[in-house]
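Hi C.,

You asked whether I'd gotten around to modeling the 227-residue construct. I have! Everything is below, sequence then structure, no commentary in between.
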Amino acid sequence: MSKVVKLILAGAIALALASVAGPRIAAAADMAVKAPVAPAAAEWNPWMLRIRGLVVVPNSSARIDQDPNANVYISTSIVPELDVSYFFTPNFAAELILGVTPHVIDGRGSLNGIPIGRVWLLPPTLTFQYHLTTLGALKPYVGVGPNYTAFFNPTPAGLVITQMTVKSTWGVAFQAGFDYMLNKNLGLNVDVKKLYLRPDVSLNNGAFTGKVTIDPWLIGAGLTYKL
């Protein structure tokens, strides 16, 4: 076979291969160009803020060393409250609760009818929470953690009781509540806590001493903002 014939045959074969493979290569290249790019994952922010209206309902009683028949009543208080939460994961978080509450104390039992005075409470509480995230917009949670309540500005009533000291003390808090998210950032919150709080008290420079069982319920409702 002559060299010319061989060249003609080789060219025909190459042309035939190009006609078959060319469209496939072009289609593959076109698909590569048009392949969708996966969107970047949204950055997750672990911070959450809540502001609530809070009703503080003490379950008060007292053990007075000098008089077993003496008791006290501590008034309910309604205050605003701010808390800050940090989520370690979507399910586990820590919440710090901030607020102050004023309370009036009156005598009961053998002290009935005797006004004792008033005092302010600063009860910062840190709870560690588990959040259920499988119910859509409804996100219930439970929590438990330490509480330290500082009592300040004690003001005796000044009639029978002329001096009052309430010792700051540690306690424990249990918590349950839920957020209902209206959108990815804003939601409604309902929260209930039970604090176990039992400070030592001294009246009239030690004339009456003992321990007061306050153990308040903290019932709150407000707004949630997820950063």
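If it helps when you're writing up: The two ends are 82 Å apart (CA to CA).

Thanks,
B.
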